[in-house]
Amino acid sequence: MPIDETTPPAPVSPYGWSKLMTEVMLRDTAAAHGLRYAVLRYFNVAGADPQGRTGQSTKDATHLIKIASQAAHGLRAGMSVFGTDYPTPDGTCLRDYIHVSDLIEAHVLALAHLMGGGESLTANCGYGEGYSVLEVIDAVKRVSGADFPVEITGRRAGDPASLVADSSRIRDLLGWTPQYQDLDAIVGHALAWEAALQKRNSRP
Ligand SMILES: O=c1ccn([C@@H]2O[C@H](COP(=O)(O)OP(=O)(O)O[C@H]3O[C@H](CO)[C@@H](O)[C@H](O)[C@H]3O)[C@@H](O)[C@H]2O)c(=O)[nH]1
């Protein structure tokens, strides 16, 4: 079931709570001081700059597409799937992976909205399409042409079974029209970035 902005937030991690607290602070500051704001609720940010200028560089990042990309490039021996007993079609968690460039465009549109005098808004940023962990790993193998070992392990604590956005609000209100709503494109850009990052990090 896609999640819309009226679904009561129910964070399961301190990080999730910190994001919700930020929303509450913005709401209260706006009420007290007339501030106008845009809350953009990111779903699973993925991919990289299509021109290869930047991408996720956090050392030891644990995100699925990054881990799978590293495995495809032989930077790690293989990877784990955290649980196959979720109430989803293939038993692995579903996520709504949004290309970082589409997310940037959402910010540009939100800023233009506010600068044009628009009301405060809270809007989901996702495509409304969920992919399972196994589907993502298949995409990484398909796009890279590389095979790597995948081990099934137990669930990781705090992983909800499904997080898929209803993004009608941002589409309707800001005219947001994603350009990269394609899992293979997202994975392709992530793979290219991971290769570039590896080259960059191995320079003396
Ligand atoms: O090696 C891995 C890595 C991830 N997963 C699974 O893949 C899915 C996606 O995981 P991940 O890429 O870590 O994203 P989320 O846990 O959905 O994290 C999102 O939500 C978190 C909590 O809001 C934020 O911290 C992250 O930045 C954001 O991407 C989850 O089911 C994980 O269990 C695996 O099976 N194996």
Give an overview in words:
- With 204 residues, the protein is an alpha/beta fold.
- It has a single domain, classed as Alpha-Beta Complex (UDP-galactose 4-epimerase, domain 1).
- It is built from six helices and nine strands.
- Helix 2 (64-72) packs parallel to helix 4 (133-144), helix 2 packs across helix 6 (183-201) and helix 4 crosses helix 6 (183-201).
- It is globular and about 55 Å long.
- The relative contact order is 0.23.
- Uridine-5'-diphosphate-glucose is lined by residues 13, 15-16, 44, 62-64, 67, 79-82, 93, 95, 133, 156, 159.
- InterPro entries: Epimerase_deHydtase (IPR001509), NAD(P)-bd_dom_sf (IPR036291), UDP_G4E (IPR005886).
- This is UDP-glucose 4-epimerase.
In short:
By secondary structure, the protein is of the alpha/beta class.
**Domain module count:** 1
Helix fraction? 40-55%
The average pLDDT score comes to: 96
**CATH class descriptor:** Alpha Beta
Low-confidence stretches: none
Write the CATH fold name.
Answer: UDP-galactose 4-epimerase, domain 1
Look at the structure and name the CATH superfamily: UDP-galactose 4-epimerase, domain 1
Q: Please provide the count of β strands.
A: 9
Q: How much strand?
A: 5-15%
What's the CATH architecture?
Alpha-Beta Complex
Strands ordered across the widest β-sheet: 7-4-9
